[in-house]
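Quick start: load a record and inspect it. Here is Major facilitator superfamily (MFS) profile domain-containing protein:
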Amino acid sequence: MTKPPAPAVPSPEPPPPPRLAGGRGPRGLRSLPALSYNTHRALVLGLTFLAYALYHASRKPPSIVKRELARSWPPFADPALLGATDVAFLISYSLGMFVAGHLGDCLDLRRFLAFGMVTSGAAVALFGAGYFLGLHSLVFYVVAQVLAGLLQSTGWPSVVAIVGNWFCGRRRGLIMGVWNAHTSVGNITGSLVAAAMLGYGWGWSFVVPGGLIALGGVLVLFFLAPYPQYVGFGPSPIEPVTDESTDGEDISAAGGDGKDRRDAVGIFKALAIPGVVIFALCLFFAKLVAYTFLYWLPFYLSQTAIGGQYMSAASAGYVSVLFDVGGIVGGVLAGFISDQLNARATTAAVFMYLAIPSLFLFHAYGSTSKATNIGLMMISGLFVNGPYALITTAVSADLGTHKSLKGDSRALATVTAIIDGTGSLGAALGPFITGFISRKGWDSVFIMLALCALVAAVSLSSHVKTEIPQIIQKWRNRSTNTQDGNADPGVQPLLVDES
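Running the structure step on this input writes:
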């Protein structure tokens, strides 16, 4: 029997590029001692983590104050009107994403992200201003949410592009899986802050998170380097520079101090990248499920007798954060497994299939006791948020640096925006129709969520069929190498290599 060929040894994590003369960077960094390349990468991870955690924290107040608004603040007595404000935010967010992604590839990502954070904070606080002004006009709150959605669309394409500029290699899934915990950390923080402020009046539940994200924008402006070239390093692992770049000039990207001779990739070229449309469709349904929980879980908990008792709005807000605790584990686990199996699509699909029984179990048995409710809630969060986190981070970064782009990383924000923008349309639809379906009872809501999880998993079938034989071959090769005394060298992510 012919011995199967040994798998190709992948390129290791690229070494730090040399520092070039002339790098300056943001004003805050210039006031610090010179930092090493790896220290800069750690700072980038930390600042982008903080930035997007604050974005998500500022989105949680509507879910926390739903019961209070429905009980005491006309015109929100009808849950469907609460859903209308959610859909106003999410539709404007998803539509703004397509524009924001292209702008992120054209402009200085640092200034673009900082602008988005400061103005998003103002828009979030505007909704809370309705409490202090005694406003009861639905139009006012819808307009406030539309503004917030448009401005918050600046965040995700920017942070994914920035992290993608600094990190690549076969550990990207794990690194970005851990980094993506900012989503759940932000949701948890936002829930805790909004619930704590609720006792002082629901307006403070918006004003305080709005102020926090604006302060975060100031930190980004002064300390975030969106590209290695921004702080004087040579070519980043995935972003080549021209020969002119080594002549001592500052080669920060478009919108920075240097000159960038490459044009950002357009939306139609980004759509032609293999896998973008499929994963965007999957995320539409996966994010529909995730955001229905984001906006309605506290309300559902407060309307459900758990162990024979009903929770207050504040208590429901505190308990609901455990869904996101499970989501943190799910995001890290999905990233790690997809790296090990070299199979992003298969990992995401399996998680979505497992989300279906977990949703039904949570709804059927979550009311028996508080402990059971918490355990099933965390399991649901793990399976629901795992694929959502994987697709919006590692998959988007893989596709945004696909080999068809010939090494040009200027598609990172655009590809991220297409995938997450499409997902956000689903995120808008889920909370909106939940406002109507919940009138018939929560059984109908959970059936709808399970069907959407099923469609999300099935939509990846073509990619799963491609990955399964490669997974089998990988493990056969590993077995052969083990018998021969050779260590498994690992593989690069499939999405980088497929054509």
